[in-house]
Each structure stands twice: as structure tokens, then as C-alpha cells.
Design brief:
By secondary structure, this protein is mainly alpha-helical. It has one domain. The chain contains 4 helices and 4 strands, in the order ααββααββ. Strands 1-2 form a two-stranded antiparallel sheet. Strands 3-4 form a two-stranded antiparallel ribbon. β1 and β2 form a beta hairpin. α1 runs antiparallel to α3, α1 packs across α4 and α3 packs across α4. The longest helix is centred in the middle third of the chain and has 24 residues. It starts with a helix and ends with a strand.
């Protein structure tokens, strides 16, 4: 049983998290794309697997984009957690780690301390 859980966490979950990158989390219906918002330093990736507002005074469109993407991410994380019989926070943490690793130089990431920094 322990070996199965270890295998799940070390191999299966990271593969599933990597697949999330192909889901196209940005929405063409929004005035601003996720990529634009990240490049402009308005949104950044966080260790918990969700987007955060780098600038609190971001427009309503940016906030709505973030909320929509975070809701879809949470739905996918919950699905992965259920399929793999693991806790949601495990999936969120793995997703956050992968998202931060994939963030290009110049975009913002939130450090575990809560500080925003350019990667």
C-alpha cells in the first residue's frame, strides 16, 4: 500500500500535473489573455497552484480572468485528487511547483514567504 502511494506521488501525479499545461487555461473570450496579464506583471503563479494578483489595483477584467482560471484549476485538481485517492492540497502543491518551474524569466512568482518576485 505504501509503495502504491509513493509511486502515485512520484510518477503519476507529476505526469497528470504536466498534462494540465495543455488544457489551455486562458480564455479567448476575455479582453486580456492569461499570457498578456502575466507578461504585464498583473498576475503570477503561486506555490498553492493558483494565480495571484501581483498588483492589487488590477482591472476587473484581470480579476475575472484570474477567478475563472483558478476555478477551473481547482475543478481539475479536485478531479485528479479523486482519481488518485489523494488529498487536494497534495495536487495543488505539485501543480504550484510545476507552474513556478515553467514560468518564463521576467514573469512574477510568489515565494513561500508571500513576496512577489520576478523570475
Amino acid at each position: 500500500m505504501m509503495t502504491r502511494r509513493l509511486t502515485l506521488r512520484l510518477f503519476i501525479l507529476p505526469v497528470m500535473i504536466a498534462m494540465l499545461g495543455g488544457l489551455g487555461w486562458s480564455s479567448a473570450t476575455w479582453a486580456m489573455s492569461l499570457q498578456d496579464a502575466k507578461e504585464q506583471g498583473l498576475l503570477g503563479e503561486q506555490p498553492d497552484g493558483y494565480l495571484g494578483l501581483v498588483k492589487a489595483d488590477a482591472s476587473a477584467d484581470v480579476k475575472a480572468l484570474m477567478s475563472d482560471i483558478n476555478a477551473r484549476r481547482k475543478q481539475e485538481y479536485q478531479s485528479i485528487a479523486r482519481r488518485n485517492n489523494t488529498q487536494l492540497n497534495v495536487v495543488e502543491t505539485l501543480a504550484g511547483k510545476k507552474a513556478i518551474e515553467r514560468t518564463p524569466a521576467g514573469q512574477y512568482i510568489r515565494l513561500p514567504s508571500g513576496q512577489w518576485t520576478r523570475k
